[in-house]
Amino acid sequence: MKLGRLNHVGVATPSIEAAIAYWRDVMGAVKIHEPFDMPSQGVKVCFVDTPGENGTAGTQIELIEPLGADSPIHGFLAKNPAGGQHHMCYEVPDIHAARAEFLAMGKKVLGEPRIGAHGTLIFFVHPRDMGGVLTEIMETPKGDGTH
């Protein structure tokens, strides 16, 4: 299995607005994308572009806030009330081949591929099989890779 580039780091937050202010005012975000709701995943999402080299965009941060009482992020925030790193996301060229490879290696794949926040297919691999980090695997987006 060869993972592609790190696409983003997911950060759970109790308030996207407060997190946006932090990334803008403290961390010097170069672009803050428009927040949007993803009812199918129970979250509100906002992508933030961190500064890269020579004024370019670096790695994206995906801010995720619970959307409704059934959000899977509620459990994470119950253990981490201030929020924090939720997952890391890596790109692969073929999501179905990657899923098959993870399963063949005996890794616990969480669910079937589904559309993620970038509009491309994703799945997650359990933290216990990924060095303690919930890992999102995402099919490489077509175009610029941003929402």
Automatic annotation (TrEMBL):
Superkingdom of source: Bacteria
Record carries keyword Metal-binding: yes
Organism: Edaphosphingomonas haloaromaticamans
Name used for this protein in its record: Glyoxalase-like domain protein
GO molecular function terms attached to this record: metal ion binding; methylmalonyl-CoA epimerase activity
Family: Belongs to the methylmalonyl-CoA epimerase family.
Keyword line: Metal-binding
UniProt entry tagged with the keyword Metal-binding: yes
InterPro entries, A to Z: Glyas_Bleomycin-R_OHBP_Dase, MeMalonyl-CoA_epimerase, MMCE/EMCE_epimerase, VOC_core
Pfam family membership, one: Glyoxalase_4
Biological processes, Gene Ontology terms: L-methylmalonyl-CoA metabolic process
Residues in VOC domain copies: 5-140
